[in-house]
Amino acid sequence: MKKVIVIGTGVGGAAVSALLAQKGFSVTVFERSDFEGGKAASYERDGFVCDMGVHFTARGSNGPLGEVARLVDADLRFCEPDPVMRIVTPSRSYDFSPHLLRPLSLVKQALIAGVKAWNLPGALRLFRQIVNISRERDATVHDSVSMRDFLLRYTGDEGIHRLVNIFSGLMFVIPLEDASAGEYLWSFVGMARTGSLGYPIGGFGQIARSYLRACERNGGEVHLKEGARSIRVENGKVVGVETEKGFYEADLVVSNVGIRKTIAMAGEDCFPASYTADAKKLRDSLGAVTVKYALDRRPFDIPILVYMPEDMDWSRNMEMMSRGEAPEDIPIFLPCPTNCDPSLAPPGKHVLLAGTAVPADLSASDMADTILDRMERRIPKLLPGIEKHILWKHRTNLSYIDGMGGRGAGEVIGLAQSYDQVGENKPDPRTPVEGLYLVGCDAGGRGIGTEQAADSALKVREMILSETQTPEMVVAEAQVPR
Ligand SMILES: Cc1cc2nc3c(=O)[nH]c(=O)nc-3n(C[C@H](O)[C@H](O)[C@H](O)COP(=O)(O)OP(=O)(O)OC[C@H]3O[C@@H](n4cnc5c(N)ncnc54)[C@H](O)[C@@H]3O)c2cc1C
Question: Is the pTM of the predicted complex or chain greater than 0.70?
Answer without folding.
Answer: yes
